[in-house]
């Protein structure tokens, strides 16, 4: 069962699939772009709580809310505006030190957050434990 986050304003999406033991495959896919990396799940739990917190504060929050894997192969940073838009900055990197680094932004709507939180929690149980 993959966990997929789709931008509401473009074709961009972040997909996460269970990989080999202790790894998740994270992919950014969009028009003219595709990148994927392995994300170590060791001590990288909390993605469900991250999206749960965004959903709980759907009316907005000050500053940034962040989640990242232990070695920061995947980093998510969320900000919002007063109109119910969530700007999810996605940073993928491959290797330490990184061979490459990709940064892009998905725009979400506050109405997506509840479903994303439930999906993230379900995915975390399957892929991170």
Sheet with the most strands, sense and barrel status: 4 strands, antiparallel
> Ranges with pLDDT <50 over ≥5 residues?
none
What class do helices, strands and sheet pairing give? alpha+beta
Which CATH C-level class is it? Mainly Beta
Mean pLDDT: 95
Description:
This protein has helices at 47-56, 113-127, and strands spanning 3-6, 13-18, 23-30, 33-40, 65-68, 74-80, 85-94, 100-109. The protein is of the alpha+beta class and 129 residues long. The protein has one domain (3-127): Transcriptional Co-activator pc4, Chain A (Roll). Helix 1 (47-56) runs antiparallel to helix 2. Helices cover 19% and strands 44% of the residues. It starts with a strand and ends with a helix. Strands 1-2-3-4 form a four-stranded antiparallel sheet.
Which characteristics define this entry?
129 residues, alpha+beta, Transcriptional Co-activator pc4, Chain A, four-stranded antiparallel sheet, 2 helices, 8 strands
Topology, element by element:
Layout: E1 3-6, E2 13-18, E3 23-30, E4 33-40, H1 47-56, E5 65-68, E6 74-80, E7 85-94, E8 100-109, H2 113-127
Antiparallel strand pairs: 1-2, 2-3, 3-4, 5-6, 6-7, 7-8
Task: Tell me briefly what this model is.
This protein is an alpha+beta fold. The protein has 2 helices and 8 strands, in the order ββββαββββα. It has one domain: Transcriptional Co-activator pc4, Chain A (Roll), CATH 2.30.31.
């Amino acid at each position: 069962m993959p966990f997929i986050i789709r931008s509401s304003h473009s074709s961009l999406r972040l997909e996460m699939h269970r990989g080999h033991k202790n790894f998740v495959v994270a992919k950014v896919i969009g028009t003219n772009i595709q990148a994927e990396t392995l994300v170590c799940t060791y001590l990288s739990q909390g993605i469900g709580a991250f999206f749960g917190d965004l959903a709980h504060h759907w009316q907005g929050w000050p500053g940034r809310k962040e989640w990242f894997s232990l070695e920061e192969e995947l980093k998510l940073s969320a900000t919002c505006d007063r109109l119910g838009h969530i700007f999810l900055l996605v940073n993928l990197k491959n290797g330490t030190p990184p061979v490459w680094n990709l940064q892009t932004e998905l725009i979400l709507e506050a109405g997506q957050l509840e479903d994303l939180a439930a999906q993230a929690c379900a995915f975390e149980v399957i892929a991170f434990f």
